[in-house]
Amino acid sequence: MAVGPVVGSESGKYNGRITSFVVLSCMVAATGGIIFGYDIGISGGVTSMKPFLLKFFPDVYNKRIQDTKISNYCKFDSQLLTTFTSSLYIAGLIATFFASPVTRAFGRKTSILIGGIAFLAGAALGGAAYNIYMLIVGRVLLGVGVGFANQSVPLYLSEMAPSRYRGAFNMGFQFCVGVGVLIANLLNYGTQKIKGGWGWRISLAMAAFPASILTIGALFLPETPNSLIQHNADPNTAKKMLQKVRGTDDVHAEFDDLVAANETSKNHQTPFPKHHETEIPAAARDVDLNPVTGINVISFYAPILFRTIGFGESASLMSAVVTGLVGLAMTFTSLLIVDKVGRRTLFAIGGVQMFISQMLIGSIMAAKLGDHGVLSKGYGFLVLVLIGAYVAGFGLSWGPLGWLIPSEIFPLEIRSAGQSITVAVGFLFTFIVAQTFLAMLCRLRSGTFFFFGGWVAVMTVFVYLFLPETKNVPIEKMDGIWKQHWFWKRYVCEEEDDLESKDGTLKP
Question: Exposed/middle/buried for 494, CB within 10 Å: 0-12, 13-18, 19+?
Fold first, then answer.
């Protein structure tokens, strides 16, 4: 039985090229990834800094220093500390449901602008925080910004990009996430050394810099042709934008497909038409479980994790920088090859690499660390290398593809809603993982890595069996991949108006 057939590409009939106009627009929009990555990286760093812990979480610091009997795995176990990290994601979860109708009704540009403004406010409040309440409210505002940006930016990138380069353009978002994580880790490493203990304020407040770029840039961003045709009564407006984006006047084939997709969307009163409702779980099961790969353990708590295995404060922060560099490099590699080798191949390679790395990390920590020991330099370095290998696998596959697949796979009429569901469920699992990881690490010890490795194995098998290849398939022609897939074709029905003419008779 064939698995995941590839639909013949129709992108060859579309004219156009990569224009400087579309490149610049996508670069500005992808800044939304930097603010997301920056926040992921910054929280783990500041929660490992002594001045930050003493000011907001003194119990955690005192327990780590004074309690010599406590397990290595339990030194940072604090629900209040995890609430600081995870509050952003529950706010993002709620915000994305507001972002969906905004994106659908007012366009992608408006949602990007709202996300930038909210993130600016959160960065200001976090940098100025003098108590835990200001700190968490600031995180909530950051979550609102991330919720809007993560819902709208991947859609914007996929709709602006030429179909044969859509994977590379969309992966620019995850590449910017990696850039944000790396910048945050480097900044944490520098601010940790500032005398006076206020370096963490710089770390939190500097989130305003990428947020300012996104907010100001959003004011000048063009709306996508797909969104224009969805909201503008005059189709010529969308056609002119498409011509500008593609750098040619001959866009008839692509424009006709956009018009047809828009007409289909008008026939549905809700953003979840019946004949497409199985397409949502098909994509959602693939990417919404992304957080249970365990990547958030590394992203949020890398410095804490390295402290757990015996690294010093500076060494822990520098190790996080190294893993950030590895992830960024592999995301860039994935960006270069995704439209050549395909999505499913990268998922498989990355999944196997992540599974093997996590099994080895768990085994080493189980055998060599213990509750009160410290890993030797040799084993500590080996764990760092394995974590780097794991991050590399994620950067090649689940990281960038987790944003690409849902942004390209949904029909126009449910695209904003489908992306919203994907982001929302992703935020839900991210919140659960962020809120429970330190407690899980305390109770499961090294078994935590076996837990996440098991999820990676399950998800990789699922992708191999149930995810069709979308390489080079035009974004408005995605229906075909479901109708031809060995499993999903039994659930996806043809459009009723494809089977019958207006007078009710069957079409020949």
Answer: exposed
C-alpha separations of 165 from 169, 343, 472 in Å: 6, 13, 8
**Cα four-point dihedral sign 219, 224, 226, 229:** positive
Identity of the residue numbered 24: L
Angle, alpha carbons 166-327-190 (nearest 5°)? 125
Give helix then strand counts, H and E, for the chain. Answer: 23, 0
CA distance 386 to 74: 22
501: exposed, middle or buried (Cβ count in 10 Å: 0-12, 13-18, 19+): exposed
CA–CA separation, 506 vs 189, rounded Å?
68
Cβ-Cβ contacts under 8 Å for 291 (sequence gap 6 or more): 426, 429, 430, 432, 433
Tell me the CA distances in angstroms from 400 to 4, 51, 316, 330, one per residue in order. Answer: 20, 35, 26, 10
* Dihedral over Cα of 271, 277, 281, 283: its sign: negative
Residues 6+ apart with CB under 8 A from 482: 278, 279, 282, 468, 488, 489, 492
pLDDT, tens digit, 9 for 90 and up, residues 394-439: 999 988 888 788 878 877 777 777 777 888 888 888 888 877 877 7
Distance CA 276, CA 262 (A): 15
What radius of gyration do the chain's Cα atoms show? 23
CB 46 within 8 A of CB 188: yes
Helix (H, G, I), strand (E, B) or coil at 357: helix
Evaluate if residue 497 carries a pLDDT over 90. Answer: no
In the structure encoding, which two tokens stand for residue 498, read together? 């494809």
Q: What angle do CA 147, 115, 302 make, to 5 degrees?
A: 55
Indicate whether this model's pTM tops 0.90. Answer: no
Residue 264 CA, chain-centre distance (Å), reads 29
**Whether the predicted pLDDT of 67 surpasses 70:** no
Q: What is the DSSP string of 367-383?
A: HHTTTT----HHHHHHH
